[in-house]
Each structure stands twice: as C-alpha cells, then as structure tokens.
Design a protein that fits this description.
This protein has eleven helices and nine strands. It is of the alpha/beta class. The protein has a single domain, classed as Rossmann fold. Bound molecules: guanosine-5'-diphosphate and magnesium ion.
Length: 224
C-alpha cells in the first residue's frame, strides 16, 4: 500500500510540528502502516539534528526496515545557525534533486512518509524557493498545525489563505493544545465554529485528521 506523503507545517516554529508528527507516526503505525519520516532541512543543529533524530529513532521502533538508513538520509540538509534556511545555509545551494532522491530512498521502505517542514509555509530557502514549495516537490498532502493561544485565528487564516492562493486543495488544519484548551474554547472557538463548523485538535481528533489526509480511496485505488 502506498499513500501520498504528508507534509506537516505550522503557523510558526515551536507550535508543535514535531510533536504532531510523532503522534501521527504512532497512530498510523498502530493502524498497520509502515511509516517513514523526513526532515528535508533542519537549522539550529549544534551536535545533532534533534527533530530528525527524534523522528528517526521513533520511526525505527515501529518500522525496523528503516535501520538501513542513516540520520543524514532523513535530514539531508543540516545547518548550525538557528535561522530560516535561506540565511542558515550561507552560500550552499539547496539541491531539489538531492531531496527527491532522499525521499525516494525512504519511501521505498514505507507505506507513507511524514515530512516535517521547518518553521512555517513562507520560510525562505532560496531566492525562488519557499517552504511551501515542498508540498509540490513531494506531491504531498498538507497538515497545518496552529497554536491555541490568542492570535491563532489570524495565524491559521493567513496560512490557509496562502494554501488556497497556491491552489493546494488536499490539506487539513488542526490546533495543537500544549496546555488546557479552556481559554481557547471561550475566546477563539466561536469564530472557528462559525467559519468552519468544527475545529480538529491533535489531542482529541487524531483519527479524523488521519481519515482526512490518508483517505480510503488511496487504498481502493491500490486494490483496483
Ligand atoms: P515545532 O518547532 O513546530 O516542531 O514544535 P515542537 O513539536 O518541537 O514543540 C515545541 C515545544 O513544545 C517542544 O518543547 C515540545 O515538547 C512542546 N510541545 C509541543 N506540543 C506539546 C503538547 O501537546 N504538550 C506539551 N506539554 N508540550 C508540547
Ligand atoms: Mg520541529
């Protein structure tokens, strides 16, 4: 069974992309899928690429076939400066073919690959390359993760407007509640309910998020 990869992005850094990717990895693995992970570019890497390492070590526990890979296969580009790749990479060029080759190497060991972006969708990589370009590069479905604090309406809508403007239609969005959602329910939920009719969260709706992004028709197409 092969599924389109999921590209996990967020309204900002530190919102919960890695946390959400780990939750998806666990849930999809428990559903019987062989899951791979990739972090195309990680910045702020001193001794080890922490996000990629955490994803890789967890993924190997569920999918031992990944043992043949090295951390560098999971995170082909690592830079020390904790900055947008455009700045952190200095004079180095990000080679998209290299990233496609790295993805293919992971993909052949998996049913589905979870790709964690860096920062948010408009994080610059090259003069003519932004984080959102990875959606098309990997032909991925997208999960936008938002925070649950004051300001999240604006942050979520800005990213959703961008996805719409880009013509990306197979995306889902959710909120990652790091702490209690009581305040969110009071100050934010009414607007989201009015606009969307529902709000999915990493904490309460992982199954629905998965159903939305890993639809059964993928399986049907595979069977037919
Ligand atoms: P990313 O930069 O978007 O990948 O964000 P992370 O997933 O690394 O999350 C940022 C920080 O918030 C990390 O220290 C996480 O451990 C923490 N965090 C993320 N989600 C949760 C959560 O649901 N609960 C708690 N307690 N901490 C969280
Ligand atoms: Mg992360």
């Amino acid at each position: 069974m092969k599924f389109k990869p999921l590209f996990i992005t967020a309204t900002n850094t530190n919102v919960g992309k890695t946390h959400t990717t780990l939750k998806l990895l666990e849930a999809l693995s428990l559903q019987g899928l062989k899951v791979g992970v990739m972090k195309p570019i990680e910045t702020g890497v001193e001794d080890i690429a922490h996000d990629a390492n955490l994803l890789f070590e967890t993924a190997k526990r569920y999918n031992p076939a990944l043992e043949v890979l090295k951390l560098k296969d999971i995170v082909p580009y690592q830079f020390t400066l904790p900055a947008a790749p455009y700045v952190a990479k200095g004079k180095k060029k990000i080679n998209l073919e290299l990233l496609e080759t790295a993805y293919a190497k992971i993909e052949e060991l998996c049913d589905i690959v979870l790709i964690e972006g860096a920062g948010g969708l408009l994080v610059p990589i090259e003069d003519d390359l932004y984080m959102y370009d990875f959606i098309r590069l990997f032909n991925a479905r997208t999960l936008l993760v938002g925070h649950g604090e004051l300001g999240c309406i604006n942050d979520v809508l800005l990213s959703l407007h961008l996805l719409d403007a880009l013509g990306v239609d197979d995306y889902e969005w959710c909120i990652n509640f790091k702490e209690s959602r009581d305040n969110f329910d009071k100050i934010t939920l009414p607007f989201f309910i009015s606009l969307f009719g529902r709000v999915l969260s990493v904490q309460d709706n992982l199954d629905e998020i998965i159903k939305s992004l890993v639809p059964c028709r993928d399986i049907d197409m595979d069977v037919l």
